[in-house]
Amino acid sequence: MSDPFFQPVSGMDLPRFAGVPTFMRLPHVAPDHARFGEVQIGLIGVPWDSGTTNRPGPRHGPRQLRDLSTMIRAQNGATGVRPFEAVNCADLGDVGPNPADIQDSMARITAFYDQVIAAGILPLTGGGDHLSSLPILRAVAKSGPVGMVHFDSHTDLFHSYFDGTMYTHGTPFRRAVEEGLLDPKRVVQIGIRGTAYDTEDRDFAKAEGIRIIPIEEYFARGPEDVMAEAREIVGTAPTYVSYDIDFVDPTFAPGTGTPEVGGPNSFEALQVARLLDGVNIVGADLVEVSPPFDQSGGTAFLGVSIMFEMLCVMAKAHAAAG
Amino acid sequence: MSDPFFQPVSGMDLPRFAGVPTFMRLPHVAPDHARFGEVQIGLIGVPWDSGTTNRPGPRHGPRQLRDLSTMIRAQNGATGVRPFEAVNCADLGDVGPNPADIQDSMARITAFYDQVIAAGILPLTGGGDHLSSLPILRAVAKSGPVGMVHFDSHTDLFHSYFDGTMYTHGTPFRRAVEEGLLDPKRVVQIGIRGTAYDTEDRDFAKAEGIRIIPIEEYFARGPEDVMAEAREIVGTAPTYVSYDIDFVDPTFAPGTGTPEVGGPNSFEALQVARLLDGVNIVGADLVEVSPPFDQSGGTAFLGVSIMFEMLCVMAKAHAAAG
Amino acid sequence: MSDPFFQPVSGMDLPRFAGVPTFMRLPHVAPDHARFGEVQIGLIGVPWDSGTTNRPGPRHGPRQLRDLSTMIRAQNGATGVRPFEAVNCADLGDVGPNPADIQDSMARITAFYDQVIAAGILPLTGGGDHLSSLPILRAVAKSGPVGMVHFDSHTDLFHSYFDGTMYTHGTPFRRAVEEGLLDPKRVVQIGIRGTAYDTEDRDFAKAEGIRIIPIEEYFARGPEDVMAEAREIVGTAPTYVSYDIDFVDPTFAPGTGTPEVGGPNSFEALQVARLLDGVNIVGADLVEVSPPFDQSGGTAFLGVSIMFEMLCVMAKAHAAAG
Amino acid sequence: MSDPFFQPVSGMDLPRFAGVPTFMRLPHVAPDHARFGEVQIGLIGVPWDSGTTNRPGPRHGPRQLRDLSTMIRAQNGATGVRPFEAVNCADLGDVGPNPADIQDSMARITAFYDQVIAAGILPLTGGGDHLSSLPILRAVAKSGPVGMVHFDSHTDLFHSYFDGTMYTHGTPFRRAVEEGLLDPKRVVQIGIRGTAYDTEDRDFAKAEGIRIIPIEEYFARGPEDVMAEAREIVGTAPTYVSYDIDFVDPTFAPGTGTPEVGGPNSFEALQVARLLDGVNIVGADLVEVSPPFDQSGGTAFLGVSIMFEMLCVMAKAHAAAG
Amino acid sequence: MSDPFFQPVSGMDLPRFAGVPTFMRLPHVAPDHARFGEVQIGLIGVPWDSGTTNRPGPRHGPRQLRDLSTMIRAQNGATGVRPFEAVNCADLGDVGPNPADIQDSMARITAFYDQVIAAGILPLTGGGDHLSSLPILRAVAKSGPVGMVHFDSHTDLFHSYFDGTMYTHGTPFRRAVEEGLLDPKRVVQIGIRGTAYDTEDRDFAKAEGIRIIPIEEYFARGPEDVMAEAREIVGTAPTYVSYDIDFVDPTFAPGTGTPEVGGPNSFEALQVARLLDGVNIVGADLVEVSPPFDQSGGTAFLGVSIMFEMLCVMAKAHAAAG
Amino acid sequence: MSDPFFQPVSGMDLPRFAGVPTFMRLPHVAPDHARFGEVQIGLIGVPWDSGTTNRPGPRHGPRQLRDLSTMIRAQNGATGVRPFEAVNCADLGDVGPNPADIQDSMARITAFYDQVIAAGILPLTGGGDHLSSLPILRAVAKSGPVGMVHFDSHTDLFHSYFDGTMYTHGTPFRRAVEEGLLDPKRVVQIGIRGTAYDTEDRDFAKAEGIRIIPIEEYFARGPEDVMAEAREIVGTAPTYVSYDIDFVDPTFAPGTGTPEVGGPNSFEALQVARLLDGVNIVGADLVEVSPPFDQSGGTAFLGVSIMFEMLCVMAKAHAAAG
Questions:
Q1: For residue A17, what are the domain limits?
Q2: Predicted confidence (pLDDT) per residue in D96-151, tens digit
Q3: Domain count, chain A
Q4: Do F77 and C194 touch (CB under 8 A)?
Q5: CATH number of the domain within which B281 lies
Q6: Cβ separation of F197 and D10 shorter than 8 Å?
Q7: How high is the ipTM of this complex?
Q8: How much helix, strand and coil, in percent to the nearest 5, is found in chain E?
Q9: Is this structure's pTM higher than 0.90?
Q10: Which residues of F touch E102 (CB under 8 A)?
Q11: Is E154 annotated as a binding residue?
């Protein structure tokens, strides 16, 4: 453990604004790198937004997330976890998408994650729009359906858009259930809100046993209670975590394509990730950060702060298991 | 009810970024349109800010509110109300102001609303600065003084500015009380805060029986309790609702001309509007959205989200009464 | 001629910031409108950018172009042409694309333009990315190949991207030549510049007889001389005009996805359009305006100013022919 | 001359970002200041835009002009003039307008300038919208009509707006001619362009003998030739200079309310002011800088750079005369 | 008391956007001004950020704080205090730093504050980065160590950066303790959070007896309870207040160089300052406002609102003592 | 030559927005990399701005330059040069500065460049403020004074600032001449303009034989003639090229700290670099790009486009020499 090669550069040595920006200033270890096999948690960018039906931009997410991630230091201020000492972390680079072909892009993404999973690396993804989660789940859940803790203002459970278009950022988890990648009984969706087309998505959730916790319930019960239920729903079996930045109130995270007014603040945005402690995470993503709608980078900074919280939970569990 | 002509375009059919933007993607039904007489709730823009003594901009409000309103879907996520099926809604267009003549502009506005009221249409306005409410009230309260629920950080009850200027966005409700348009005993002002010139406005409120709930009291009691009192104050008689976007904390609503630090967040911004349920609303406005101070459109999106909440309350009551 | 119905609203009557924004404040005449058949020049939005391989955004172009077009008055300051009195102009609305399906979107666009062409309306389009021109040409050139004056910094003549993807905003005119929509001998491309992948596109142009005028030649000869040659190349036969906003220097038009440094300024941007006078224009487009990269709207304002110049040329010719 | 009291603070002593920002870091000498009588050229702010019929904002101009003016050093780089050593310059402060009353504001402005003129001070104004020039001229031309060199993209010679509104930023010079403040035979307007309502303004100019040099002529002849004619037109009699920042191309000066595409660049923006050398300037203004439309301050920096060029011409003449 | 000379200009007389902007529209009374000796509380700008190891910008803070401070009125809306009537307040101007020499700048700052302290003026500073507090404390604590209430997300207690650099914005209070300017037993740091390098700073705090209240404890206990403890820690002996704007959540205060996600909102930002009531304040600062990272000015407006709250506490105590 | 390792990633394979951003998508070859010795031209970032006396920001330059450099393709559109095939190019990473210690930073920079020069690599730098050129020259000119072509609006030849501060971004070339790093007879400065403190810098230039070409002369003669003289001045002996982005007009390059109005446009910005063809370049830099003042990245894109032009000249010469 604590191999110097896998340590991030400290802002005490090299100012944060300096250097080629990798995720959290970790070494860049592409799949063809000599030390790829030693990575335990891999940070991956999926710069892709072709599933977006509204305002595009998340294809630019990974670059800005990397840029802002140079503000992250080595230790979790709240829990004291030092993830980079606990496990070997690295930036595995970006998956190269085909912005003009959705099926080709999904094939490319799944192929990349197949390599990652095959190497025994836990993937932590910076998206990309929410359709990205589907090709990732095809690799992560190859050996059987997984549970999911899903933070979002939308269910992303719709059947289709525009008279029969099946693959958009509003349909990934409908497809994932249909494809047997998710066990709907072990799926919980937290923070759902905003105006609705109709109840087609919620009817599907109900029929399949997916638990939806709308924002009104979330605020009434508080994050601790809600997350206790979430941990109970997914139990100790393998679980994926999918965190759409639009779970957070758009004032705290304006850089996203389909904002919904009236969500949690930034403190809670971190807190719910921290409360994943104990979940058996086999992969996680943070999606829908759209830099063109937040040039200040505040959304990306919040996004990487959330990624760091998830990383700490994953690293702690991995180190304990190891 | 539920006439197809009066249904908004769905984002499932036409992407939200497409199409000429009307309020909430409703049909544009100007007063000379054949179906004007069938409208039950009319959304109206008042692009006017000549009463602004500080930073101008609300004249650009209606256009940006319309633009962002294409993000609103057909169903209220929290209450399940589907207003466009309950009553006939339409975009009645903008009142044309004279930006270089305050009295002429007020006459134009009142004349437009006279038509609307005469047609039995409930007006829901997107402003415009707060002086807009005065010429609207001259039409709405033509047959007698109305009550008012007023969300704001300022009382807008001042006597005059700059040595005797009587018509500014800081004086509309002083004038409305003087003109007998408002029944001060049935007026409640919620969220008042910020540094003050003096107590001239509050002294007037006290003398007239207007109830002021300052922000400290609001936070101490919470929105549910405060709104229960507000509903009691206005009772079941005709009531106008005037919602200044600067009621909300300027971080959530930066696009406004006279922000005051330390207000409610966006969840509560919607919640208080939802808690108007039961009030006999004869007209409502959302004013002081100033696009030049929020190019991201976040303020306008919050603004139309609030308008949608008010619309749902109005539609539900109208349908129930109908 | 000069039917009051087809006249734009004047800023002397209704301030420019007021009213539901249609193109140049013209009436909104969708294909199902009673007076659709009387339109002579139709302004159409194509809010679509799925062919974009780099930075997306032009799907938001039509809305911002309409917004800024309210700054356009009735008379050309340089030529004195008053197009709205010369011919019946109208805003025909947007073509509804499918943002998650390229082929479906192209079919929708061609179908819309088939209606327009069938009605004898000259289409003037506000895009959209440059792939939009292909489905438009499929309608415009249905009866035989047309010539083209093409303002751009790129040739858009590539064979394919990403290992065989044939439909992107870098390939429309390669496809159009292959499909027999363009007569390459009557195509001229003006302003080509920037770093290059290789010479594959230019080799194709050379082989087919397409005339490329690179920016160095453009500056050396000046706009008048260059446009004289352009007019000679296309002659009097039917000609399409395709104007990519990235023809203009990115300082004057920052709101675009693939800028190239060192182009013409805004005066010349208008001048070259004005110098189309005499060309037999059967359709024109202004594409690649990307609002997320220019929140000030300056690019869109330049874009609609160029559209107005093209409109004046088209209207003058139409009136003369009529 | 060269009284230390009237010298600006040097950026070599106090960094430019430091200090309370006055115009060009000159002393603040309000009319009640002991040394007011010694001022020879007074820089004055008119933070007022109530005459604006389109996008407001110039009321914020003086503050941003002052802010950016701290970038101005003591010597003209092109001509070598050191104005602050040649004459006593000072910042006289702002005229306090009444943003909700046009007539009252004009009276306040004229009263302020009456004091300035009475003290023998040459006024150099930072506006404010263009209506500001009218009340200034009422003071400056009290003893008889003056000539005017007018840089602008609009003539500002309209009769009225909105059915009879006489005082807007589109009418000041029509009023000034009618009131005998300007001698139309000695007025030249340079840079006129953009789409036009009609020819009502130009017909008036023609009838009165005002010389209009449209942008096409300006570019064809070049600034030197055009300015030679301008100097000849105004001759050696007292002349006012009115410089609307929208004379400059909106890419170079985006911070303005009514931009017109296709104007001069920034080098020429300075050059034409420099070529006023020899004109008998009795007052000058730089108007229509609108900070809300250019948060970067580039427009204001160009604006104060133009003011500095005008100041150098005025100071050189004053010193020579003195 | 209540000398007219020391009263701020009212927005009812001169609109807030008008006039040369001093802090809160107070008179500008530099140390060489005739009435300097009568000032009781002095507002001072320290436009300096050479101690910044990350993103610079606070050197621009004082100018933007002054600009936004024109929005502050004369009376505290929550407490009713009217500070400008209670004591003589003035803007003492900026300390001129040397941006290219840290030691020289610190000497200049201390020299300026020595004058202020010698004149018996309580200094209220608008920074500047946090290193500014060190040279200020050298003047304020000249006669003995003071206590400190410190609002921040960082401890600023590090030993050094970059292999031995002792003076940065991360080290001022380590130096201040070492130099005997602060009594560590009477120092409380509130709001500490974010990722950490290591625990070197916290170990120092522990060893010296500095009380750190991390953000989790702050939220668990609430501002009233936390501030009660803070008042107890500092007691009635002389106390300095240092308020780093990054104490506040970066969504509410984006304009700062080293933001940390998950802090207090704007209401609490004011509330904690108000709860200083009773502390024996001998000086206060508001630092790290960085305008380049918040062009809207929202951060500066919050900053001056906090300064006004601190001013009210200081003025009330001063008046009571006087 | 044309080693695949040293080829940049093509946008035809991996979209430009994807991947960890190195300069021009070249391999990242730090000095400890196995293939460092094979590099022929090294692109280096110097993220440092401690010499800035006005508005800071260039410390963020290298990161944004790298980001935008992913828009650069493999071939020069104007000259046809393919530099990456001609010589081995690589991104050598950033020099780590000490933002709080100027002397330490200069020592670090010189030490880094000593390594580069020792390895026979031609350095092409992205700054950083202009003081960066001094420590670079200390390495580049180790074996004797070099000539210099210097594009700038300022001479940067001042003796000192703030009473004796010798190292700022206004003094590097005064120091370089004094230290014998530059041969003043072989130095030419092009584009000098803007207001001036005095003539101290120009007097020094005159005395030493440095040739200054002010902007008025530049525009009068044109870039070709000016550059012919420049090439003659530096001759065939070793020459450094220093390109301050503020040479370009601030409208084209707003992202800089000390802009001066009225400079060359973007076409000429590239053209003058292209006209360096034939100069014996031993190192080059592009400095003063300040991202906080141009969030759109347009300035950085222009900056890397200029760097690419210089790279092509350097690569062509190197290949010819090799």
A1: 4-321
A2: 999 999 999 999 999 999 999 999 999 999 999 999 999 999 999 999 999 999 99
A3: 1
A4: yes
A5: 3.40.800.10
A6: yes
A7: 0.95
A8: 40, 20, 45
A9: yes
A10: 100
A11: yes
